[in-house]
Amino acid sequence: MPSENLNMDDLTGARRKSIAESIHTISVEELKALGEGLFPLVNHPWREKFFNFLSENSGAAFYHAVTDDSVHVIYCPAREKGIWFLPGSGMGPMQPKGLRILKEIVEGLR
Q1: DSSP string covering 71-101
Q2: Mean pLDDT throughout 29-56?
Q3: N or C: less crowded end of the chain, CB within 10 Å?
Q4: Partner residues linked to 74 by β-bridges
Q5: pLDDT in tens, 76-95
Q6: CA distance 37 to 67
Q7: What gap in Å lies between CA 97 and CA 22, rounded to an integer?
Q8: How many angstroms separate the CA atoms of 37 and 96, rounded?
């Protein structure tokens, strides 16, 4: 499936379960290190999008999870924003349905 068609809005039961099992808080420093590893070339187009997401939401808490099919999810509950990425393949913003599911999962942790 082409990465442009990966719709994180359609969180299957298996994805939802793996997100619930793997979700954890992650510091901005850890996210920056993750971004450096994923996008080591300064001119990589996804690098800019990734680091812009971090800077646009600076000062907020972030959560990170990985689905059973290796899709990474980063969620910022304070801003109700999130992104997904499949290393080496694609990246995109979380859509409203996926954000609602992430919000439910994070609220369940508290």
Answers
A1: -EEEEETTTTEEEEEETTTEEEEPPHHHHHH
A2: 89
A3: C
A4: 64, 83
A5: 999 999 999 888 888 889 98
A6: 19
A7: 19
A8: 28
